Amino acid sequence: MVKEIQQSLLDDVDKGILRALQHEGRLSNVDLARAVHLSPPATHARLRRLEREGYIRHYTAVLDREKTGYDLLCFIHVSLQMHQLEQVEKFRAATRQMPEVLECHHITGEYDYLLKVALRNRKDLERFLVDRLTPIPGVARIHTSLVLTEVKATTALPLE
Question: Using the 8-state DSSP alphabet, how is residue 148 labeled?
Fold first, then answer.
């Protein structure tokens, strides 16, 4: 309910600012103002409000995974033996500490978690599975899928 209320508080200019920054996060304030047809001071004030209210969590550079040597992208499904709070928290804490894990999602269905993992090669995958993931207390099953071709990858939300 709160998120619905927050979403409704975004007007067309706010959405325009967010769309522009999702496309090019390094826009200068002047260029951003020009894109949303607002003065630079008014644009700057709105941008600071969007940051303060948490619509913009942080700014980052999106790297080319393959050019940086991470040729292997995997999706790994994980099931836990039991769903006791202590076991769940240990699993979550462990995955947060693994730099190879780009994303970790608690999901419904046959598995409990879905991990998106970037690795350099098959040997790294083997080490990750055997030395890092399997030893986490409570891990019951692991199913790994290798990405052959990344058809679409984006961080941009479809703001309407």
Answer: S
Fill in the DSSP letter of residue 121.
S
CA 9 to chain centre: 24
Architecture of the domain defined by 2-52? Orthogonal Bundle (1.10)
Task: Tell me how crowded residue 159 is: count the other CB atoms within 10 A of its CB.
Answer: 15
Beta bridge partners of 72: 119
- DSSP states of 36-79 as a string? HTS-HHHHHHHHHHHHHTTSS--------TTTTT--EEEEEEEE
Chain Cα centroid distance, residue 105:
10
Q: Are 77 and 40 in contact (CB under 8 A)?
A: no
pLDDT digits (tens, 9 = 90+) for 14-33: 999 999 999 999 999 999 99
Domains of the chain, by residue range, sit at 2-52, 72-146
For tokens 């947060």, name the residue. 96
Region 72-146: CATH code: 3.30.70.920
Residue 148 has pLDDT above 60, yes or no: yes
The pTM of the full predicted model, rounded to 2 decimals, is 0.87
